[in-house]
Amino acid sequence: MSVYAPQLETGSPPTSKRGRRSSPWTWRWRDRLVLACAWTAGLGLCAIAAAIVLYMGYRGIEYLRPGLLFTRPAIGQSQSQTGGILDPLIGTALLTLIGIGLAFPLAVACAVWIAEYGRPSWLARVVESSIEIVAGTPDIVLALFGLSIFQLGLFAPLSFRAEGGGVYGRSFVAAGAMMSLIALPPLFAATRDGLQAVPEHMREAAFALGKTRIATIRRVLLGSVRSNIATGVTLGVSRIIGDTAIVLLLLGETLHIETQGPVPVVDLLRGTGSTLTSYVYDNSPAGEGAAPQKAYAAAFVLLVFVLGLNLLVERIGRSRPAPSPLTGR
Amino acid sequence: MSRLRDPWPDHRAERLLGAVSLLVGACVIAMIVFVGVRAWPIFEHNGLSWLGPGGNLETQIANMQATSVNPPASAYHLNAWPLVYGTLLTTSIAIVLGTVIAVLSSIFIVELAPARLRKLAIPVIRLLASVPSVVYGLIGVLVLVPFVGNHLVTASEKNSVQNFVELTGAGLGVVVVILTVMITPIMIALICEALMAAPASWREGAVALGLNPLRAVLAVTLRAIRPAIAAAAVLAAARALGEAVMIQMVSGGSSYTPNFSHGALIFFYEPLRTLASAIVDYHEGLGAPALRATLYAFGALLLFSAFVLSIAGYLIKLPLRRYQVRG
Amino acid sequence: MNRNRRLTRLRSLALAGASAGVLGVAAAPTTALATPTISISGATASYPLVSLLAAKYVKLKPHSVKFKITQGGAQIGINDVASSRVSIGDVSRDPLPSDPKGLVFYPVAKYGICVVTSSANTLSNLTPAQVVSIFTGKTRNWSQVPGATASGTIDLISRTSVAGVLTSFQTLLLEGKKVTEPLAHERPSEGLLRTEVETDPNAIGFLSNYQAGLGKLNTVAYNGETCNRATVQAGQYAGIARFYEVTRGPAQGFVASFISWITKSAAARKIISSQWVPVT
Questions:
Q1: Are C169 and C227 in contact (CB under 8 A)?
Q2: Disulfide check for B108: which of A42, A315, B26, B238 has CB 3.0–4.6 Å away?
Q3: Do residues A303 and B135 lie in contact, with contact meaning Cβ atoms separated by under 8 Å?
Q4: Which pTM does this prediction carry?
Q5: What is the ipTM of this complex?
């Protein structure tokens, strides 16, 4: 046993083949109780996760017909008349695009600046703390913030101005902007950690070849943190898809996607709609909810997306090969 | 020739990237300013007493909704204690339960589980952490609430509080159960990391002195990572505070303060409302100025609490560096 | 070198031009070329009626207006129209002295407020005194209500304070008293109230006659008068209230055309007469 030679390795329990491991039957009852509780807690959590997945799967297969994915929702009295979930699906995709589209350049630029430049240092600390604050802010507060901004007269073109001059303040752009704030912290953290993990000798080699710092970043570093960025984007997308509060307050909650006017793309962004999350909420007994079947179907689709993104994150993490000592890549 | 395609000199790039970062920082400051300015009327009229008890909250909010144009100063009167109480109650119970379960589960995952089960546990934890809150709320309102309402709440219990409140199954118990399940994965991730990074030699020394392996972990490693456990609890508290949609779906939506003197079991059946779920409940009434100031005041309080908790978590994690425990 | 610089300059000019174009188009206010939008918000009780009327109006006069209808409760409708967030407010109660000045109420239909219980509870009639006593929380058990087939605590289901139906109910059937709170379980819309009463055998609530006729509910007679469209039309039922369309100042332009179509045209009258009663 390594009592005399101190080790700093990360621990696995002592599995020395010399000497017997003490059997739990010889322990005090207090320790046996803790052992039982620990096993219960661990297995219990696995059981809860399995129960959630299996139950949602059972309900989803029961209520989700493939046709629902391509039918538009409708107002109806009974559940067979309320149509499908096409508009919420499109709404989710659109919001994700806008959110990631806004968050990606901001997050990567911030991460690059903090990791590579970071002068003056007080500003770097301020920026890092603000991103931490955003990460810790509840999404309902971000939704309130979004409402307060987009109901200003300045931003009236980004939504809808009512007859008497009141700005509606709810549109895809408004919700997408706040979604980008949701996706920013994971993307920023992943990129910054990746950049900080790139060994110094790669930068030094690039400088020795005469490249400027920004050229090194563009050509060398960003390529080597591709998988970190991919992980960050996937985490951000997963957070955007699962968010409800911002959608409830900032997307206008109309059943169909309603464009604001005739112009093709721009008036879609100014329009209102719904997403999978607000559809689930509206059809549950907490919303207008006479349609728990549709709520289950949409929730199943949502869960499938989230699980798929989880698998993607794991696949990206596993496929990242260990950096070779020569190239560092 | 390469300089032709990289026309950006370093200082220009640095300034641009710095400006973008400053923009992000400015967004956050803008958030604090905007929410604070919109919330100011409530603070101006009530001071801090709007956090305390007094008056009937439902009447006050109805009054706010009824005075939509140029509301008189009396419309801004607010005593939101039921909401503050509901938030404190749900968060603290969920944190206590969650910490216990998270510590036990982390010990299980790191020390006790056979290797195959350990490899299964990590995706399970990540799954629990990434389920959207509206799905938790859906399962709560369609499965747990009817179960509690129809099978757990007895008629005699309903009768005993019939002059105070209606027990429908949606209430404190269901909220706490689901909230615990939501925040435990966050804590497990942090505590597992800390357990694995704690020096193994300490535990091995304890085993050499005659402790059984589990007691060695409990006596030595757990005490060493106490700051990590505290940081995990603080982080989870920030998450629990801000949970709005799930709680709105399963809490019964009544501004009632659960009363422990009705009996311990009935206490958990009683409905309640938290600050965050109140914002979701009343968000359609944002057109009335007094109600808007109220909801922003709730948001300002949540923002402030999350801010304080983040700082606390950061400060707690500082001494962890001493033990080379990555927080 | 000159060529590269020229290309870069052209590229940035094109990008600037494109973004200016996009922003310009986005900033252009809804011109007369686009169809104007009538935004409506308010009572959940009149939402089915107003949706049907709007759909018929669009079918009869295509491309003249678009509608954006939301719900939230009569008080929300009043607040929204008073602060000009919407063009029309749906209101299901009579004007109150506390309403903001300058609002114009146009009555469009009459409806009845029915007391409802779950279909398992075949209570047939309630006197006014009984209704007051139940909804103000004095009677708490079904055993104290003769004729009720439910047993146990009475589950009161009511509406949130923004509901016009609640105000009308309290004025017309509750002799001006208020529904007790926090005992009553407040639901934010008629549909949700109906769902709750349907699924809880001990529940009692109040709905507009249209919603009461929709689900599997037991409608309780008030003072011997059943609550349905016929008795509302005949004026015999006690709980008759009105739906109003409210505008800020007298209605003008396409809003005025829509409201006068509702109150005057035969097609609108036919829609109103299907489940409600026209205001003659």
A1: no
A2: A42
A3: yes
A4: 0.86
A5: 0.89
